[in-house]
Design goal:
α1 packs across α6. The protein is an alpha/beta fold. A 9-stranded mixed β-sheet has the order 7-1-2-6-3-5-4-8-9, with helices on both faces. The chain is built from 11 helices and 13 strands. The structure holds threonylcarbamoyladenylate and magnesium ion. The site of magnesium ion has 4 residues, from loops. The site of threonylcarbamoyladenylate has 30 residues, from β4, β5 and β9.
Amino acid sequence: MASKDIAAAVEALRAGGLVALPTETVYGLGADAQSELAVRRIFAAKGRPSTHPLIVHVASAEAARAWVRDFPQAAQALAGAFWPGPLTLVLPRSPLASDAVTGAQDTVAVRVPNHPLALELLRAFGGGVAAPSANRFGRVSPTTAEHVRQEGLEGVAVVLDGGPCAVGVESTIVDLSTGAPRLLRPGGVSKEALERVLGQPVPPGPLGGVRAPGMLESHYAPRAGLLLVAPEALAGAAAARAASGQKVAVLSAAPLSLPEGAERVEIPAAPEAFAKELYATLRALDARGFEVVVAALPDEAGLGLAVRDRLTRAAGPRSNR
Ligand code: TXA
Ligand code: MG
């Protein structure tokens, strides 16, 4: 990426504009986190309810401290172990974090992304960049610059192309604002790795997770219907849908025998590799006109937990989108 692109992106941020930026998880739609006007443009571009808080991206743990009132021992341990990286910490907010960014909550989410372009941009800009995933609200997150362009979001001044995202699912969100750490969203840092560093369990956060809209029932959803079944039921479920005339894709690492009208789409057996390809696969299946995608949930270990979460939400009821 030419330095003039970074310069153009910094200029756009300073002018209160929107910049799509690569991170190691997914592409973000960034704006100057200290400009309420700029932050409101993010919500408008995405069609996202303005009560849903945003993550503030910064270049270092030192820069993160300006956004929080308190950076407790647990935050220092997690930041030391995983930043820059796919981990977001929720902490009591400082006056720098406006209601526009936090959805008027008393906490703020901060993260140092691990992507050279994102870090270069954050250092050159100097401030915090509020950025949700660069997709329309409720849809599949973009993991390439081309996906961002396909979303056709209005008012994006610059799209920085940093290639395909290495992790492929969003950051892990840990709430450290209430004493005991809570996992608000499983993501690119595994629950096991968090618990190893903290030396204590990190149970899932508030049930129903109204604090994290990624936790709405239907989210990360492709156009095709997603049908989740037990691994041994993949072929049978696909056959039933194909028999009713639907164009069916079956996500499977292992070969399957399928009837006409159903096609196996090979996915990696390892959850890290599956996570990396997940959103691009769902987009590609939409582009090919599949009406139903049949899949089985991976085990919970490692990034399997995040993949299970995204698949479950992509399969969720769609009335609330
Ligand atoms: O990997 C990621 O986290 C990507 C990249 C671009 O960094 N960003 C991302 O942003 O996934 P978004 O807006 O799609 O999801 C952010 C999540 C939302 O579920 C939001 O509710 C939660 O973070 N969040 C933000 N601030 C919060 C807060 N103060 N308390 C609880 N949850 C918060
Ligand atoms: Mg999102």
